[in-house]
Automatic annotation (TrEMBL), chain A:
Keyword Transmembrane: yes
Keywords recorded for this protein, A-Z: Membrane, Transmembrane, Transmembrane helix
Keyword Transmembrane helix in record: yes
Protein name per its UniProtKB record: Branched-chain amino acid transport protein (AzlD)
Annotated TM spans: 6-28, 40-60, 72-103
From TrEMBL, chain B:
Membrane topology label: Multi-pass membrane protein
Main location as per UniProt: membrane
Stored InterPro entries: Brnchd-chn_aa_trnsp_permease
Gene Ontology biological-process entries: L-valine transmembrane transport
Family stated for the protein in its record: Belongs to the AzlC family.
Higher taxonomy: Bacteria, Pseudomonadati, Pseudomonadota, Gammaproteobacteria, Oceanospirillales
Cellular component terms (Gene Ontology): plasma membrane
Spans through the membrane: 12-34, 40-61, 68-87, 132-153, 165-183, 188-205, 211-229
Gene name, Swiss-Prot/TrEMBL: ygaZ
Protein name per Swiss-Prot or TrEMBL: Inner membrane protein YgaZ
Localization per record: Cell membrane
UniProt keyword annotations, A-Z: Cell membrane, Membrane, Transmembrane, Transmembrane helix, Transport
C-alpha cells in the first residue's frame, strides 16, 4: 500500500459514508417521508442489526455451526435471554461477552 | 449550562453501548497493525470515516488486496442502513440549522441512533433538547472510538495475538442489547426471524449484498405483520413503547 492508496481509500470511504448519512439531513427542511415509509422505518434497527449478527453468530467459520462448541452462539443466546428478561442494556452486553469468553477459553 | 446538561444525558444513555464498543475499537486498532498497515491509516480512518463495521470490512478487503473501488462500494452498501436511520430522523432535525444537521449526519451511527431515537419516541427529548442529547451521545462515541483505535494499535504491537481473541463478539452483544427492547410485539419478532433466516441463506452473495437484501425482507415482513394485526382492533404498536 502506498500513500496515495491510503488517501484514496479514506477519501472514498468518507464520501460514501458521510454522503449516505447526510443526504436526507441536507434537505431535511424539504423532505417529507410518505406514511408507509414511516411505518416501515421502525423495523429498520431490528432488521439490519439482526442481518449483521446472525451470520457472525451461526456461521463464525463460514459454515453453519449450531452446537455447544460455538461460543458465538452461546454468548448470543445468553445476551438475548438476559435482554428479553431484564431489559437492561449494560447487563445484556456484559453477560453476553462473559459467556462468550468463558465458552471460548474454558 | 443547559446544553452541557442535555449532552450529559446523551452520554449517560450511551454508556452501555460505549462499554460494548471499547473491545471493538481495540480490535480495530490491533487488526490494522497486525495487517501491517500504517498506524496513521487506522487513526485517520477512525477519525474521518467513523463507521465501525464498515472499517472492519474494509480491513478484510485490504488484506485480500481488493481494488479500491470494491472497498469503497462495499463501504457504501454496508452503510446504506444509515440512510434509513436518517429517513427516520428527518422529522426531528428539519428545524435545525444546516451546520447542526451536518454535524449530526457525520455522527449518525447505529449506537447514537439506538440511544437517542427512542427518547424522541417516549417524549424524553423535544425540539430544543434532542440535538444536544444527540451530540452528547455522538461525541462520547467519537472520543471512545478514536481512543480505543489508538490503544488497539499500541497494544496490538505489544500483544500480537490480540486480534484472535474474538473481541468482535462485543459488537454482537451490543447489537443484541439494541434489538431486545423492540421485541414487545409479534411483528418485531417476525421481522427478527425473517431477517436472521434470510441473512444465513443469502450469506453467499458478494459484497455483503446479503445483508441489504435480508434487512429489506425483515422490514417487509414486519410491515406485513403490522398490517395484519392492525386489521383487527388492537392498541397501537408504536415505537413509543420502546424504552431505552
Amino acid at each position: 500500500m502506498t500513500l496515495p492508496d491510503y488517501i484514496l481509500i479514506i477519501t472514498g470511504m468518507f464520501i460514501v459514508t458521510f454522503g449516505v448519512r447526510f443526504v436526507l439531513f441536507a434537505r431535511a427542511d424539504k423532505v417529507v417521508m410518505p406514511a408507509f415509509v414511516e411505518k416501515a422505518l421502525k423495523f429498520v434497527p431490528v432488521a439490519v442489526l439482526t442481518s449483521i449478527i446472525t451470520p457472525m453468530t451461526l456461521m463464525p467459520n463460514k459454515h453453519i455451526n449450531i452446537s455447544l462448541d460455538n461460543p458465538w452462539l452461546l454468548g448470543a443466546i445468553a445476551a438475548f435471554v438476559v435482554g428479553i428478561w431484564r431489559q437492561q442494556q449494560l447487563l445484556t452486553i456484559v453477560v453476553g461477552v462473559l459467556v462468550f469468553f468463558v465458552a471460548k477459553y474454558w | 449550562m443547559n446544553t452541557v446538561k442535555e449532552m450529559r444525558r446523551g452520554f449517560v444513555a450511551s454508556i452501555p453501548m460505549i462499554v460494548g464498543g471499547i473491545p471493538f475499537g481495540l480490535l480495530f486498532g490491533s487488526l490494522a497493525s497486525s495487517h501491517g498497515l500504517s498506524p496513521w491509516f487506522a487513526i485517520a480512518m477512525s477519525a474521518i470515516v467513523f463507521a465501525g463495521s464498515a472499517q472492519f470490512v474494509a480491513l478484510g478487503l485490504i488484506a485480500l488486496h481488493a481494488p479500491i473501488w470494491v472497498i469503497v462500494s462495499t463501504t457504501f452498501i454496508v452503510n446504506l442502513r444509515h440512510l434509513l436511520y436518517a429517513a427516520d430522523m428527518v422529522k426531528f432535525v428539519r428545524h435545525l440549522p444546516l451546520s447542526m444537521r451536518f454535524l449530526m449526519g457525520f455522527g449518525l451511527i447505529d449506537e447514537t441512533y439506538a440511544a437517542v431515537r427512542p427518547m424522541y419516541g417516549i417524549g424524553a427529548v423535544n425540539e430544543d433538547s434532542g440535538h444536544k442529547v444527540y451530540l452528547g451521545s455522538f461525541l462520547s462515541f467519537y472520543i471512545m472510538w478514536n481512543l480505543t483505535t489508538l490503544l488497539g494499535i499500541l497494544s496490538g504491537e505489544l500483544i500480537p495475538g490480540m486480534s484472535h481473541w474474538g473481541l468482535e463478539f462485543a459488537m454482537v452483544a451490543t447489537f443484541i442489547g439494541i434489538i431486545t427492547p423492540y421485541l414487545k410485539h409479534k411483528s418485531f419478532w417476525l421481522c427478527l426471524v425473517c431477517a436472521g433466516g434470510s441473512s444465513i441463506l443469502l450469506s453467499g452473495l458478494p459484497n455483503n449484498l446479503g445483508l441489504l437484501v435480508s434487512a429489506l425482507i425483515g422490514v417487509l415482513m414486519g410491515v406485513v405483520a403490522d398490517a395484519m394485526v392492525n386489521s383487527k382492533p388492537q392498541k397501537d404498536n408504536d415505537i413509543k413503547e420502546v424504552e431505552s
